């Protein structure tokens, strides 16, 4: 693997760490299987692309993407807690609806950002190549988000949110409004995913209506992969595992596609992803089976 | 004071499966009282407790806690007034959270959230002190996941948790039923201690007549959704399980109690 490819893997790994944080919030903290992300990722891209093209400050445009993603998450959560639609189904409905909404936002299937002023534009003046400066910018963003989430999840409302997902009945008996916690958590989750979509569009140079396909699988692969390679005993470790898992996933994909002797090509990406996810899910059990056999 | 006013609860109303679990219960619990509730399966004792906690909403009647009408309040809204220990130790605490995190949740029960760390030196100190009294060495395992503990340990912690914030009433829902006899005795003992220390008004549902007489200041028996008898004070002193059975027979025109589990446990 060339160093450019390695930095590329690091860059997308960092962007998708934000998706992993989002998926961690829905799947792990709230125990809410949420597929909205396949819609909120391109939504974030669409919102910020349109706003950037219209001349808005790229950071404000990214913030707007966060707001849009939050709205998407709130819609899914409301369908679940107020209308009592099964969580998975509610998220699929939002995801489908977002396809139309994203087309409406962009007015066309894609918006190009080439030559526009993005959050990465200031790095043009840096005396290092773009493929190292981009991961630095994204790395700083991921770190900032990491510390905010870490602080939140250990705060009073954050602990209440974790209790909501872990044991809703107990949470309610301790005075926690579980419906509200689900709504807030889903908003944060999809807001983060939308920010990832926004950053992805800004680094790739365009927002595209199809860019959300499979985002949930990548997010899950990152979360599960992270859990497979390291301990997630504390919230800090669990959040770190999201970052580690996301970067590892990108390197695994890059390795698989770059290793000529295997013969895999770019079109095999989704196949490799599916195999990796399946492996990451099975790996912990395989490990404990093997350990048990060694001890026995 | 707690009032249940003419409470009726009907499940699956209007369907062939319609069940009238509670048929007009009137109950006033005075401050400081420790009421034990017995009754066979289907007598409506758990339904009554759940109507008080808000898990089940009454089809008819009113629930008042102090001077507040809480009939339409959700479980979480009532939590500021009610603390509760569940029958199943797995429901009363979060296995994926640590001991101290579980206790921190109870520490904030019914309080407004503030964006500050849920755990701090001050409440950790309180948790340690509380855990130390159990004599199980749990005070050195604050960071351990709740799921690592046994049912009895979890139930004991649930009890400690229920007293971390003041409440108008403590609800105990057969909280020793899932434990082995030795652990059950330990938890019951702890229950008595905590209730006396904090002068808690308590409603305890139990399956055991023996237990219902052993603890508390007042005993109520439910049968088919109604209160059959209600004894307290001098009348209750010295009562035996045999007396309770006679009391039941008297009030039910000679009908015998057919639930063995009430007698055996």
Q: What would you note in describing this structure?
A:
The complex is a heterodimer of chains A (296) and B (265). Chain A has 296 residues and is mostly helical. Chain A has a domain at 3-209. Chain A contains eleven helices and two strands; from the N terminus they run ααααβααααβααα. In chain A, strands 1-2 form a two-stranded antiparallel ribbon. In chain A, helix 1 packs parallel to helix 5. The longest helix of chain A is centred in the N-terminal third of the chain and has 27 residues, at 3-29. The model of chain A has no long low-confidence stretch (mean pLDDT 92). Chain B has 265 residues and is of the alpha/beta class. Chain B has a single domain (2-264), classed as P-loop containing nucleotide triphosphate hydrolases (Rossmann fold, 3-Layer(aba) Sandwich), CATH 3.40.50. Chain B contains eleven helices and ten strands. Chain B has helices at 45-53, 75-78, 89-92, 99-107, 121-132, 151-162, 181-198, 209-214, 233-236, 241-251, 260-264, and strands spanning 2-11, 19-29, 34-38, 60-65, 68-69, 82-85, 169-173, 202-205, 218-223, 226-232. A six-stranded mixed sheet of chain B has the order 6-7-8-3-9-10, sandwiched between helices. A four-stranded antiparallel sheet of chain B has the order 2-1-4-5, with helices on one face. In chain B, strand 7 (169-173), helix 7 (181-198) and strand 8 form a beta-alpha-beta unit. In chain B, helix 4 (99-107) runs parallel beside helix 6 and helix 6 (151-162) packs parallel to helix 7 (181-198). At the A-B interface, helix 6 and helix 7 of A face helix 2 and helix 4 of B. Chain A: It holds the Pfam family BPD_transp_2. Chain A: Keywords: Cell membrane, Membrane, Transmembrane, Transmembrane helix.
């Amino acid at each position: 693997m060339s160093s450019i490819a390695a930095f590329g893997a690091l860059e997308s790994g960092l962007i998708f760490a934000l998706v992993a944080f989002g998926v961690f919030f829905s799947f792990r903290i709230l125990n809410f299987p949420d597929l909205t992300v396949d819609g909120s990722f391109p939504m974030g891209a669409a919102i910020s692309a349109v706003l950037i093209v219209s001349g808005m400050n790229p950071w404000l445009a990214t913030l707007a993407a966060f707001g849009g993603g939050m709205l998407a998450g709130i819609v899914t959560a409301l369908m679940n807690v107020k209308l009592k639609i099964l969580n998975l189904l509610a998220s699929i409905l939002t995801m489908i609806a977002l396809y139309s909404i994203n087309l409406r936002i962009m007015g066309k299937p894609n918006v190009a950002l080439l030559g526009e002023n993005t959050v990465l534009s200031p790095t043009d003046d840096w005396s290092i190549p773009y493929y190292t400066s981009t991961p630095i910018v994204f790395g700083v963003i991921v770190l900032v988000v990491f510390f905010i989430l870490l602080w939140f999840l250990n705060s009073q409302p954050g602990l209440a949110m974790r209790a909501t997902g872990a044991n809703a009945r107990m949470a309610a008996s301790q005075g926690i409004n579980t419906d509200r916690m689900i709504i807030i958590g889903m908003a944060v989750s999809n807001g983060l995913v939308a920010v990832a979509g926004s950053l992805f569009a800004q680094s790739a140079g365009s927002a595209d209506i199809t860019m959300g396909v499979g985002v949930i699988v990548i997010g899950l692969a990152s979360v599960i992969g992270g859990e497979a390679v390291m301990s997630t005993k504390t919230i800090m470790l669990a959040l770190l595992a999201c970052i580690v898992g996301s970067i590892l996933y990108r390197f695994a994909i890059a390795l698989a596609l770059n290793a000529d002797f295997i013969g895999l090509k770019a079109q095999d990406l989704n196949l490799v992803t599916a195999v990796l996810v399946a492996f990451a899910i099975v790996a912990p059990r395989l490990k404990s089976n093997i350990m048990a056999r060694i001890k026995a | 004071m707690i009032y249940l006013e003419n409470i009726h609860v009907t499940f699956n109303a209007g369907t062939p499966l319609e069940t009238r679990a509670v048929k007009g219960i009137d109950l006033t619990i005075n401050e400081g009282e420790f009421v034990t509730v017995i009754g066979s399966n289907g007598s409506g004792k758990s339904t009554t407790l759940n109507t008080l906690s808000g898990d089940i909403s009454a089809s008819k009647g009113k629930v008042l806690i102090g001077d507040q009408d809480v009939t339409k309040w959700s479980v979480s809204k009532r939590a500021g007034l009610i603390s509760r220990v569940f029958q199943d130790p797995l429901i009363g605490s979060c296995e994926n959270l640590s001991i101290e995190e579980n206790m921190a949740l109870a520490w904030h029960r019914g309080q407004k959230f503030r964006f500050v760390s849920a755990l701090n030196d001050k409440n950790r100190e309180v948790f340690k002190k509380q855990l130390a009294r159990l004599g199980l060495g749990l005070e050195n395992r604050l960071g351990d996941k709740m799921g690592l503990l046994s049912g009895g340990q979890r139930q004991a912690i649930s009890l400690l948790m229920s007293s971390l914030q003041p409440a108008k009433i403590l609800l105990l829902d057969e909280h020793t039923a899932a434990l082995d006899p030795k652990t059950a005795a330990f938890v019951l003992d702890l229950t008595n201690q905590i209730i006396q220390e904090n002068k808690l008004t308590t409603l305890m549902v139990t399956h055991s007549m023996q237990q219902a007489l052993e603890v508390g200041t007042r005993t109520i028996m439910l049968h088919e959704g109604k209160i059959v008898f209600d004894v307290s004070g001098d009348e209750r002193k010295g009562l035996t399980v045999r007396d309770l059975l006679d009391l039941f027979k008297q009030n039910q025109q000679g009908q015998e109690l057919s639930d063995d589990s009430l007698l055996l446990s």
